[in-house]
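Hi R.,

Here's the chain you asked about this morning:
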Amino acid sequence: MTGGDEEKFGLSDAELAVRPTIYDRTALDGKTVLVSGGAGGIGRAAAWLFGRLGAKVIMSGRSQEKLDSLVAAMRAKGLECHGAVVDVRDADAVSEFFDKLCAEHGPPDILVNSAGGQFPQPAIDFSVKGWNAVINTNLNGTWFMMQAAARKWRDAERPGSIVNIVVVTAHGLYGVSHTIAARAGVIGLTRSVAVEWAPLGIRVNCIAPGAIETDGWKVYTPEARAAYPRSNPMMRAGNTWDIAEACVYLGGPAGNFITGELLTVDGGGQLWGETWTTGKPDYFKTSI
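And here is the predicted structure, written out as tokens:
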């Protein structure tokens, strides 16, 4: 990083446009996929992959500028896509968004809930505002999108598939307890409604990424980032394409007999390793 330029992390649009995939390029022809948080790291990779496999992709997010940039890049490669600003924390806004989406494009076949955010901080220092901000986005926002999609599928008497992006909650992610709480709630919701909604033909699953390099890494300290590749037995960080390919597997036809599942994509980190988003405290560095 030189000349004052901001350090970049993750895969660029140029890389996502050509990155190799195991899937056939016509695997999702005729499908419509909605990706919330579509302009973010994981959501962006998912949007590119679904689009490259023949799907019409709708990306939602908070920044019109970021969405427009992604739409332009994907359309330049001949992919069918659209972007829409929606605040997932607002249930009424989500409902209105789905009404408009279904009127213009029909109900989506697949929903990928990638919208979310958090900030690293010791839990003891969370403010009420900071706590609520993360819970409202990561838990409530995910739920509002899930429920709105399920209602459209029920009313149209057609099946649907939801993939919720969460985090590894079982072992070794410290410094973001608010998002652990929110994402654990999403996992519980997923398992519950997977049973309730199965008679409707709706599948609901989760993907838990481990240390995945995205542009969001810039909020973490260099010390914390340097330790991420050693947070799993494969001794490396993953990338957003790893998660995008998992989304296609769980959300698409390959996952047709899978529901209520949590797929962990972390290089084995849940079995061995730990991730400190705020850097490991001195006590844990020196204790045996």
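One quick note: The chain has a mean pLDDT of 91.

Cheers,
M.
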